[in-house]
Design goal:
This protein has about 300 residues and is α/β, with parallel strands linked by helices. It contains 10 helices and 14 strands. About 40% of the residues are buried.
Length: about 300
Amino acid sequence: MPESCGRQLCFFAGLFLFVCFLFAPVVAQGEIVVRDDVGHEIRLAHPARRIVSLAPHATETLYAAGAGHALAGAVAFSDYPPAARSLPQVGNYTRLDLEAILNLKPDLVIAWESGNPPAQLAKLRAFGIPVFVTQPNTMEDIARQLEAYGRLAGTEALAGRAAAEFRARLARLAATYSGRSPVRVFYQIWKGPLFTVGKPQIITRAIQLCGGVNIYGHLEQMAPTVSLEAVLAADPEAIVATGMADARPEWLDDWKLWPRLAAVRYGNLFHINPDIMQRHTPRLLEGTETLCQQLETARKNRQRVR
């Protein structure tokens, strides 16, 4: 074989190996397949580049998973982190603006099972848009969601670190507080009507992690309404109210009208920012830590008053 032919063969062989190396990651990655919280398989040919979030908690968790760069739009009240406030809005989670969503040309929509209208989600699917449905009911669900969003958006490494940090912090809180003496808790979302949280709610699990007992943790509804008389009869040792943001709701002090109520007698009327407690995002651990500290105060007050 002439020397020139040998050189040509070496050149083409080298070129072939370079091309194989260049495209190997794409071939290895292949189709992205992720199962959502209601059991649907979401299939993407490549990481999502234009995501529309239909719930504030989903928007926040997407940012935490490193997928903020891929967000093309979100619903109203998607206000954390601050960058989310500049996203185009597509209605609110209970009344979606389908035209606005379609105009953003999403290649993935993140929906909320207990918040978004099913009929509108069905219409999005009819347009061929992949819809990942989220419903985080446990602490571990938040970690899994971080990982799922990382796979969908191609940010697995960052999302994996965020999930690992979340699980480690969760384990530390559980080790510190879950074995403490029980405190009976009434978690008050609003005054009129009296809304609380039931058994399926992630907040009930946060209360348990802190060594508390949700006095309505046996109810199957997510957010049941209860009567004033029933709360008084249950005689909770601590009342934790939310209200609006960091402001302590004035109506929390209405409980002082019943001085024989254990929570009033012990001075255990607490407030917590709903953004870090009622949004099922990694920041829930901030709310849980605050709650645990409040229940620790309740234990000390129990000893002081007795």
